[in-house]
Amino acid sequence: MTEISAAPDEPIAAERPGRRRKIVVRVLVGIVVAIFAVWLLLYITKGRFLRHPFERVVGSLTDREVRVGGDFQLYFAPFAIRLVADRASVSNPGWTTRPHLFSADHVEARIAPLSLLFGRRRLYSLDLVNGAVDLEWNAAHDRNSWTFGDKKGGKPLEFPTIDVATVAGTTIRYRDPRMKLLADLRFETIRSNAARIGQSVDFTGTGMVRATPFTLTGALLSPDRTVARGQNKLTLRAVAAHNVIDVAGTLPSVADIEGVPLAVAARGRNIDELLNIIGVVVPETRRYRLTASLVKRGTDYRFTGMKGRFGDSDIAGSFTVQQIEPRIHIDATLATRQLDIVDVAPFIGYNPDLVAAKGVVAAARATGAAPARMLPDARLRVEAMRQFDADVRYTVGTVRSRKVPISNVALTTRLKNGVLQLSPLTFAMARGNVAADVTIDASKRPTHTRYDIRLAPTPMSRLLAGFGVAEAGTTGMIKGRLQLEGDGETIHESLSAANGRIALTMPHGTFWTRNVQLAELDVGTFVQKMFQGRLKKPVEINCGVIAFTVRRGVAAADPILIDTTKNVIVGRGGFSFGTEAMDLAFRADGKKFSVFSGQSPVGLKGYFAEPRIDVISPELLNRAGAGLGLALLATPVAGILAFVDVGDAEAAACGPVLRGAPAAAQRTTEGERRDDVGTGKTDKKSGKKKNFLGIF
Q1: What are phi and psi of 623, to 5 degrees?
Q2: pTM for this predicted structure
């Protein structure tokens, strides 16, 4: 039984491998036939029926709405996937200002099938007509329109490798609400072959930065690497508000400048016009040219290695622009080796070009000042000062000036919530030091300004050398302080309403004889010394004070008192910051007998910009009349008696003088109150005299 049943099974076992092979072959043939059928169906129909599935699948993968409004084709031709889509679009997220991230009138591409599954996506060819791309950041700057898949954390757009391409009429729109930047770019027609585009891809554009329009021209100098997601060498030129800005660098991708050093060069007629583009206000300058390296990190734009010139001055340093809502913050460290005095003019409101061409008075008139005035009426840009904060440290080696030598300037500026502090401001002037603290509070209406300027002991010889005083024989020192407060939107307005005190003191020293004698109008002594050949013999100053009390912009002498070995010089009158008019009279009374002396005031009148000295005063004319009368009634010798100075001037006590005390505190060397320097004021509460210069 066993042998009989075993024989029929052997053919069955032998047939199983053959049957399996047939099944496999039939399956493979079926698959091939099915693929061919699908290919044939797609080829015949051009895959037009796949439009809606294509929109759904691609929309699901990108988490965006995908639409094809015109002709659609998706088929194998013969082995590459051929895609044709007319009026195609990919939507933007709902928070953007434009509906589409991408749209095009015509897209035609041949795609490598396996690249969709493995490795980098590859296009054998691409033909794009009138493509438009919209790139936007949200207000918080934590999302952008070109990152897909919000639910999965988002994936940035990756560019495929393209062998042959023709891209015509492409535009890109970029919007950054934090920077208040909007740019529209248009690219020239791009043609590539064998995955190479050529030398460059040129583009032009227009835009707006904080309400300032600009134009752009630029190029991608390495477009082949750009297509392959390699290095992207970019050059760009922007023209805005009379400024030209050039940017060059190598980007890791087309839309990525994070942490990438960019070479920046800017030039124009005024740095204020440049920085005003981003809402930052600085004093006006003459023409400038700057270069720097720019690196963006997060919300910070840092410029390092900056160097250049403005007007006839150099500048170098670094600064950072921080986008801290609701205001911009500027942090800068700047240095100038040599600063031209004309380039300082904008810091107090003058136009430097006008100062250089026509002088200070013409520049003041251009700000609205009346004729013959020097103080500018340029209004503070209060609203702009409230839009940004700043911390700036600025140093200057030397200041080119024909009158007063200035060097070693150091300025710290802080702007916070509309309050501008220039504190401290220090500089060396004629071997003396000046320290100042100025606060401009633009948060108040009207703007309130406090001035506190202090002059450390400074040699008169160098300080006044630029005004015709010879250094030889002049050894006196000057120190002083100006302390004023006033309200107003211009320097002129704030000083016109200011209250405070100004005082300059002179300790013991010498002064060139000719200048002193002319000031004293002691004609006899002057002529005598001139004939004796001792014109430059110094006259000793025991002590002196020139002080003013300022009330609502009007400065009254309080006191003017200079004690020399020969004379006591006193002054009365004052000046006005409002009208800039001066009306001062100086009188020298001799301590010694003089046969022929004017003994009458020398007037200083006119305006700050046009001062004049009145040597022939009414008192002198009266003396001349009296002398003439005596000469006619008696003898010619009697006429001289009208000009005799008996030398009864009382010497000044130098203690109150050197303290800068007001007139009421001044005394003679005998301790008596002086009645020739005005009434002055005292502190009624304490009864103590004010030691205005006690800080030195």
Answers
A1: -65, -40
A2: 0.73
